[in-house]
Design brief:
Blueprint: E1 2-4, E2 15-17, H1 22-36, H2 46-56, H3 90-93
Antiparallel strand pairs: 1-2
């Protein structure tokens, strides 16, 4: 199992990745939910992730941006740092 905290939504959260049979998935899910009950743990789906990332201004590749959209067209100029040296595509963006 891989446990990650990507922080992609700007919220405190974790993701669990594992390759297992459905029975084991249910056991892990139940155990995590039970262990976190006293802390108010709650599952969050992709809809919540999309709402949170949209509020933060984070784009999702393939959903909001792709190879046909450059960062400036996507409204991501706030993360493009032209004064930090060379990078691939800098000349095109300028």
């Amino acid at each position: 199992m891989i446990i990650s905290r990507t922080g992609y939504t700007g919220e405190l959260g974790f993701e669990l990745y594992f390759d297992a049979k459905p029975e084991l998935c249910r056991k892990v899910w139940t155990a995590v939910m039970e262990a976190g009950k006293e802390f108010g743990i709650a599952p969050v789906g992709l809809g919540a992730r999309d709402t949170l990332r949209t509020e933060m201004g984070y784009m999702l590749y393939g959903n909001d941006i792709d190879q046909t959209t450059n960062p400036l067209e996507a409204g991501l100029d706030w993360i493009v740092k032209f004064d930090k040296g060379d990078f691939i595509g800098k000349e095109s963006l300028l």
